[in-house]
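Internal QA ticket QA-208
Title: Verify multi-chain structure generation after dependency bump
Assignee: T.L.

Test input:
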Amino acid sequence: KERSTRSFDFGAYHTLETIYSWMDTLVAQHPNLVTKQEIGRSYENRPMYVLKFSTGGSKRPAIWIDAGIHSREWVTQATGVWTANKIATDYGRDTSLTSLLNTMDIYMLILANPDGYVYTHTNNRMWRKTRSKFSGSVCRGADPNRNWDAGFGGPGASNNPCLDTYHGPSAHSEIEVKNVVNLIKSHGNFKSFISVHAYSQLLMYPHGYSCNNVPDQPELDSVGKAAVQKLASLYGTSYKVGSICKIIYQASGGSIDWSYDVGIKYSFAFELRDTGRYGFLLPANQIIPTAEETWLALKHILEYVRDHPY
Amino acid sequence: ERVFVGDQVIRVNVQSEEDVQFLQALEAQQEWELDFWLHPVSPELPVDIRVPRSSLSAVKEYLHAHNIHFTVIIDNLQELLDEEKAEMEENQM
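Actual output:
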């Protein structure tokens, strides 16, 4: 077991068990800021934990960050771990982050698809989906980023359970998705929803299911462009910014489309860096540079959300 | 564990809308069991495809036949996975 967050290697890939154990260490070291909450169980009955960063109050305006909904995108879970530690250690040291946490809460789901993540460690490193079973098919798993109730079943999702973009039998059929939906709805005061994916260096905003501009498109575009400028200031990594539909492809049932449509204006999705040679097999020595640069963009979005209440 | 010995990941630097259409047709070709890491959507974005060893020659022939240029970015996926696993075990120790 990792005995201290100081001895934990943030520049390495870890198993689910190690990350869950590290969460306990983080909580133990920052008891007045961080709590670990179980938001439900996965299809294979693994607990799903969010780290809640809060300095008090009840249902304060909050920011949601999830990573690893596509299990093979390992740099996202690793970036999530680094980021959670960064938030905990910078509170009280970084004036801006401290002021944010004095008025808002941050919820982080570092392993949004725990069954898939374990499967990538034990059976198939290239697994992307959940591990649920469907009657009438030998193939398992739905794409949890095609399963949200936002244009569900529309273009850019498959109805074939054997494909990687299978949308599942119905919206929120995947318990991993439903658990997040339940938390967001019961809380009722999320102001930002950020999903972290990898790879291809993109910062996206809604919609994916439609190529029409959302009402807040100019503002989201400008926030996104400023965020990626900050990101690029560290290592020069170049990001594209735009709606999902316009900068990659039309895709229905995505998480940030759902969050935007339920009223969470500042909804964004990241596609983190690749070096152009490794895809999902990004070497571990790239984890910390990726996390560091991503933090600059994330922090810009968080500060903007803090400064623009609605 | 599933192994990926001999699987390659190829990158297509898409040149035209016509290339996109040929690649989309390839995407629909289920028997080759291709895994599109980056999907064909526009001439502005590259396409990355993990090609199982058993489909390599067919896929490369298809691309050559349609004059679509590609490079191999991962020559043998299993080698990279073995390196990743060894590194993780070392870190764990």
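Spot checks passed. Chain B touches chain A through 24 residues (CB under 8 Å).
Status: verified.
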